[in-house]
Design a protein that fits this description.
- The complex is a heterodimer of chains A (about 200) and B (about 500).
- Chain A has about 200 residues and is of the alpha/beta class.
- Chain A contains 6 helices and 12 strands.
- Chain A has one domain: 3-Layer(aba) Sandwich (Rossmann fold), CATH 3.40.50.10420.
- In chain A, about 25% of the residues lie in helices and about 25% in strands.
- In chain A, the strands form 3 sheets. Chain A has a 6-stranded parallel sheet with strand order 1-12-7-4-2-3, with helices on both faces. Chain A has a 4-stranded mixed sheet with strand order 8-5-6-9. In chain A, strands 10-11 form a two-stranded antiparallel sheet.
- In chain A, strand 10 and strand 11 form a beta hairpin.
- Chain A starts with a helix and ends with a strand.
- The model of chain A has no long low-confidence stretch (mean pLDDT about 95).
- Helices cover about 50% and strands about 10% of the residues of chain B.
- With about 500 residues, chain B is of the alpha/beta class.
- The chains are: A alpha/beta (about 200), B alpha/beta (about 500).
- The interface between A and B is large, with 75 and 98 residues.
Chain lengths: ~200, ~500
């Protein structure tokens, strides 16, 4: 395999021989464009509108209302609870040590999120405290995500700048979906078919 | 089973067959029309603010910069991956890449793997290579599953089963799912939601028992060793998360220098591709994360013709491609012929340049026909999120095809005609003589008629030019040349 490495790097250098390698600077105006900030709406309204566009369900609540809202959304369903999840859940299943096959038999999961992205209606999970490993928010059919409102950022540039690439990340924009049949969007394939977002203000 | 593109006839012949299929044309027109509308709406949001053009310029510049220093970025990527606990392999061609993947599966004693849709693994024919080694590769993307179960070929970069409608998909599921695992429910209808549900149930057991997954990557970050997969259904997340072993086959042009560079591409790709502000799921991972996801992570860095494309100064911009497929959806040729006619996993305008650039021209008639599979209307360039000037590359590739085939028997007539023209244009007296001859010949030439613009045309030449003029009108040569008219009237005297 070392031969292949040497050969490929040599081919690359050969292909670029005679090419001026001086790098033109990358224009980054897309980050600073003043028109990006919404004028008509505040950030949180924009986030809620964009999340709802994907047919995810958004519930706004105060910190005191989180427990009740969780109970309403989950109804009688059992829910996986990752370590460090701070709110009470009516029928909790402790997440530690669950296998994928065990997760598959539990209808719901609750997590927090590290960030919300307003312009795209995206939740970003980095799978630490309160979020659990990546399989938690994937295998159960209902995902309920609690997001403190102050974690909502404007757009993708702000999110990328704030995130740590060394952590695994899952960016979630609405429930699992496909457009593979006649390019019609259908919600619900392999990931959770129901996504609830509790925005805590 | 699995068919391949081997033996696809040259584009004009393959296109003729595709055009004769009315069902295919209906399916394609409907699907490409839908996606064009969705893309236009979400791109317009960013055009209003001026961001879209800024993003395209940034995307193109990042990719160009990376390609100009590709050797350095690849070495950096390798270092970062190794530091994060991944194993890095290099593969010069398809055969080497397939051998790496098969040997990893063998080492774990596995006879099946689950797969995320990936252009790179389709390009190298991984499924067929693994099957030859006794390893079943299960496609888990819905469209790939439709193609695999139907023993069909992909026809679109994003939606490989774009040529199938819901009724056809239902048929395939009812007929074929039982042979591959959990059968489709007997009461399956052709409602997309029911079809998606059938795929969910069919694949769930495969995800839960899989020991190894194979993926591609949309981006590979040199600075950190982070790989990125952008998807919709969650099958990607299943593959990237549940099995113990993960192998990602990554084309060497997928590298981007820094994590921060992703902020441009994660805006450009989903809007161009599925016409969404953001695709449902994007996964990023950096080597091995203890206690979360695969504990053995491999990355295969694949050349397979990419360095050949890199050496082409006009064509190397094709390596900026982020596989969004926007150019397919707007292409008037693709919309009518579909993807199979291009004879490659890369169809449409991007395929028409990528295939000849990666394989080289002058040896395979099918490859040489691809740069001509275009009307050069430029719609592809207009939508490309990384500003690949596809029409210019097509024209340059055509020139390369002609150069490579100079002296080739079918072109002898054309090159003799060109040589004759060069000789005639080379001197004033020879040109005058030629014009006199043309004027005379014009009187006797095939059928003369008047075109809608009022110009006299010859619609069918006699003799060796007959085939050439089958689809072209030729302006009828004037009875009297400009020179002769000038001599007769002394110009201004008239």
């Amino acid at each position: 395999m070392n031969d292949a490495r040497t050969a490929i790097l040599e081919r690359v250098r050969g292909a670029l021989a005679g090419t001026e390698r001086a790098a033109a600077p990358v224009p980054r105006d897309y980050r600073t464009n003043p028109a990006r900030r919404p004028v008509r709406q505040d950030l949180l309204d924009l986030f809620v509108e964009r999340v709802e566009d994907y047919r995810a369900r958004v519930h706004r609540c105060s910190p005191e209302e989180v427990a009740d809202t969780l109970a309403t959304v989950l109804r009688h369903r059992r829910a996986v609870v990752p370590e460090g999840f701070a709110w009470p859940v009516p029928h909790p299943v402790p997440g530690a040590g669950l296998t994928a096959a065990e997760l598959d038999r539990i209808p719901a999961v609750v997590t927090t999120a590290t960030l919300g992205v307003a312009t795209t209606g995206t939740l970003v999970l980095t799978h630490g405290e309160g979020q659990g490993p990546r399989a938690f928010s994937l295998v159960p059919d209902v995902h309920v995500c609690v997001l403190p409102a102050d974690r909502v950022v404007l757009g993708v540039p702000e999110a990328v700048a704030a995130l740590d690439p060394h952590r695994p990340q899952t960016w979630i924009s609405g429930p699992s979906a496909t457009s593979d049949i006649e390019l019609d969007r259908v919600e619900g394939v392999h990931g959770p078919r129901e996504l609830h977002v509790l925005v805590v203000t | 089973m699995s068919r391949t593109f081997l033996g696809t006839p040259a584009f004009p012949e393959a296109a003729r067959a595709a055009l004769a299929d009315p069902q295919l044309r209906r399916n394609l027109a409907h699907a490409t029309g839908t996606i064009r509308g969705k893309r236009a709406a979400v791109v317009a949001e960013l055009e209003e603010t001026g961001e879209w053009e800024q993003l395209r310029l940034a995307g193109a510049a990042i990719k160009d910069q990376t390609l100009h220093h590709l050797d350095e970025h690849l070495v950096r990527l390798e270092e970062s991956l190794v530091a994060a606990g991944a194993v890095v392999h290099w593969a010069r061609d398809a055969e080497e890449a397939c051998a790496v993947v098969a040997s990893i599966a063998h080492r774990h004693g596995l006879d099946e793997v689950v797969k995320i849709k990936s252009m790179a693994t389709a390009e190298i024919g991984l499924n067929e290579a693994l099957a030859a080694e006794g390893i079943a590769a299960w496609e888990t993307d819905l469209a790939e599953l439709i193609v695999q179960l139907g023993d069909d070929l992909p026809s679109h970069i994003l939606v490989p089963a774009i040529h199938r409608n819901r009724a056809e998909i239902r048929e395939i599921f009812l007929r074929e799912m039982a042979g591959a695992g959990r059968p489709a429910p007997d009461d399956l209808t052709d409602e997309p939601a029911r079809l998606a549900e059938a795929a969910r149930l069919h694949l769930r057991e495969k995800f839960l028992r899989a020991g190894m997954a194979v993926s591609g990557a949309n981006f590979a970050v040199a600075e950190t060793g982070t790989l990125v997969v952008v998807e919709s259904e969650g099958n990607g997340r299943m593959c990237l998360t549940l099995p113990e072993v993960l192998v990602s086959v990554v084309g060497i042009e997928k590298v981007v220098p820094t994590w921060a560079d992703l902020d441009a591409f994660l805006q450009l790709l989903p809007r161009s591709s599925t016409g969404e502000r953001m695709n449902p799921y994007t996964s990023t991972w950096t080597g091995v994360t203890p206690g979360d996801g695969p504990q053995e992570v491999h990355v295969v860095l694949l050349d397979n013709g990419r360095t050949r494309a890199l050496a082409d100064e006009v064509g190397r911009q094709a390596l900026r491609c982020i596989r969004c497929s926007a150019c397919l959806n707007v292409c008037p040729v693709y919309e009518r012929t579909g993807g199979h006619a291009y004879g490659s996993v890369y169809p449409g305008p991007i395929g028409a340049i990528l295939t000849p650039l990666m394989r080289g021209v002058g040896t395979d008639e099918q490859v040489d026909s691809l740069p001509y599979a275009s009307s050069l209307c430029g719609a592809c360039y207009e939508v490309c999120p990384v500003l690949i000037d596809i029409p210019s590359v097509l024209v340059d590739q055509r020139a390369q095809v002609v150069d490579a085939r100079r002296g080739h028997v079918s072109h002898v007539g054309e090159s003799a005609a060109m040589k004759g023209a060069a000789w005639a244009f080379g001197s004033a007296s020879r040109l005058a003589g030629a014009e006199r001859l043309a004027g005379l010949a014009g009187k006797f030439l095939g059928r003369r008629r008047v075109d809608p613009g009022g110009r006299g045309v010859v619609s069918r030449l006699l003799g060796p030019g007959g085939a050439w003029s089958e689809a072209r009108d030729l302006p009828a040569p004037p009875r009297e040349s400009f020179r002769a008219w000038w001599r007769r009237t002394n110009g201004a005297d008239t």
